[in-house]
Write a structure and sequence with these properties.
The chain has one domain: Rossmann fold, CATH 3.40.50. Helices cover 38% and strands 20% of the residues. The protein is built from six helices and six strands. Strands 1, 2, 3, 4, 5 and 6 form a six-stranded mixed beta sheet that branches. Strand 5, helix 4 and strand 6 form a beta-alpha-beta unit. The chain is globular. The chain binds flavin mononucleotide (FMN). Flavin mononucleotide (FMN) binds next to helix 1, strand 3 and helix 5.
Length: 169
């Protein structure tokens, strides 16, 4: 049994729900797991870390970037995984493969890889239910309702299962 920190950074809470789902699946698989906001989290005392952030305009949230750089040395000594939560709207409109920085900020992934991240994945996101400001409101207005929440809970739990397997191994 491992003690796992699932640290996350969110603006409109949908990434927090992904983190809770990952932590819940890890617990169902017999591990101890805490989902904690990245600004309040430390890797100290844990055996493994999952770090996730919402992506806005090609950037991770500041709290997740800070966590990654502050905890880099600890992370380098333990298994850790990364997820980004982002794409919304019609899948056919997702950014082209050559523009992957929209989905996963390159600098963040380089830092995670330098610290030995086991895997980094991108999960579909959810547009805000209560959008702030003109840009968010326009995005919500211009996105068909069925594509406003692209989170795939089976995919998310399946990923957490793979982490649970590796921790058990
Ligand atoms: C103004 C705005 C900018 C966004 N920029 C990106 C982006 O660059 N890449 C991406 O994949 N998703 C982008 N998204 C989608 C968000 O990442 C998605 O809604 C995410 O699930 C929000 O997470 P949160 O609810 O935890 O804040 C953007 C959404 C908004 C409203």
């Amino acid at each position: 049994m491992a003690r796992v920190l699932v640290a996350y950074a969110t603006k409109h809470h949908s990434t927090a729900e992904i983190a809770e789902a990952v932590a819940g699946e890890l617990r169902a698989r017999g591990h101890e797991a805490d989902a904690v906001e990245a600004s309040a989290a430390t890797a100290e005392g844990y055996d493994a870390v999952v770090l996730g952030s919402a992506t806005y305009a090609g950037r991770w949230r500041r709290e997740a970037r800070r966590f990654l750089s502050h905890e880099r040395d600890r992370l380098a000594r333990m298994p850790f995984w990364v997820f980004s939560s982002g794409p919304v709207g019609e899948p056919k409109d997702d950014a082209p493969a050559e523009d992957d920085t929209w989905l996963e900020p390159r600098k963040v992934i380089e830092q995670a890889e330098a610290a030995g991240v086991r895997e980094h994945v991108v999960f579909g996101g959810r547009l805000p239910e209560e959008p702030d400001g003109f840009i968010e409101k326009a995005m919500v207005r211009n996105t068909p309702e069925q594509f406003q929440d692209r989170r795939d809970w089976d995919e998310i739990r399946g990923w957490a299962d793979r982490i649970a397997d590796q921790l058990a191994g």
